[in-house]
Amino acid sequence: MVVDYAIKFVMIGVVPSNRRPSSANAWLLLILLLPLAGLPLYLLMGSTFFNRRRHRIQQQANAMITNVHVDIPDHPADAELSDEVESMVRLNRSLTGYPAVDTNVRALWTDYSLAISRIAALIDTAEHDVNLEIYAVALDPTTRPAFDAMARATARGVHVRLLFDHIGSRKYPGYGRMKKFLNDANIDWHLMLPLQPWRGRFRRPDLRNHRKVVIIDGRTALMGSLNLIDRGYLMRNHRRAGRQWIDALLELEGPVVTSIESMFAVDWYTESGEAIELLSPRRLGVDTPGEHVVQLVPSGPGYQTEPNLRMFNTLIHHARERLVLCSPYFVPEDSLLEAVTTACYRGVRVDLLVGEKADQFMVNHAQSSYYEVLLRAGVRIWQFPAPYVLHTKFAIADPGRPSNIAVVGSSNMDMRSFSLNYENSLFVASGPLLGQLEQLANTYMGVSRQLTLEEWSRRPWHRRYIDNVMKLTSALQ
Questions:
Q1: Mean pLDDT across 300-316
Q2: What does each C-alpha distance from 467 to 371, 372, 376, 463, 471 come to in angstroms?
Q3: Does the N terminus or the C terminus of the chain have fewer Cβ atoms within 10 A?
């Protein structure tokens, strides 16, 4: 009893430090109810002790990025941006160090197989280096063309670097076979956020590097929601359910490629200890005037100010007539939930695109626990039909209007993506991509079913109970 009360007394004063109230309350509830189990879980998954080295590297990198860009304006001088959009660009730069730049969007790839074929085709054009950073990677018949292209690249002297998340990739069939292929092909690879205590490499097991980028010779970059894995994600339960992932991938050229590669260089140094010399587009002889003004917005535990969450909140508050949100996992932090519902009360039409059934039990129920408050506020919830998994992630404010802006990338709109995952997003201030994203949203909505408040109110009591329990677990961060 003495130990029990001592744990409770101490943790009440420790847990709330530098933590949002919802997260602190969830941890304290667990510790107060089950102190002998809650305390070890908090030390393992709630403490920031094991992340100090990564935080230090990211802070040093942020200072270097800011120093390199000191003479570069927040956005191109000829960009015609409203005062409000300019303030968003300044916010993003203040939080991450990256300015908005001219860029060409060569393609928006929405066909899964064609997107992976495009990755392989671009790797085959590489002359200097290929850098890939992808959360989930597996060697299977779908991805084999990309792996073979990497092997051909190393055979002709191209330096191929590959980062993939340890936990995010380890669970898929053929993991050992994939590592052997990488070694045999002389591909330079490292695990992101490895969980290897026997090698002195330990960190919080719930952290993920969720970024998804491919960079070819510093000229071309691909980024979006696509992982390098079969569209059905290979697991037995996915095959039984017939799940197929729906994704989108951007192909980019111009100065933003250097921004993306510098983000990769920080992660590569963190995992390998090797510093990469970045070749700017000008040094490579690339001079392509951009049709778009875009800005890279990386995020993760190394950024103490949560740039991802602030960007999404600011975009939502920017909307005047319509807001479109597309995310496979929508588990909003308090400020995001208030921003979305406030937009409805301001008269903004809000369309939320989610899957009919998420591929993860806990997330599926945590997400649906917010549906009632969203529906009562006036949010139109569109459910993409199962067994397909709508995995594309983007947000659009005021599509079709001069003030139209968007965010697209790897980040879900959930607490994990805002606080725990390393993510990469692209803030789109102007350009034809805005119209393409609107068309993509309309396509998704055209095959989706709208969920009504009347229908949702008829769900059984046990569904409500499970939803509310999973809602509590989502705040443990």
A1: 91
A2: 10, 11, 17, 6, 6
A3: N
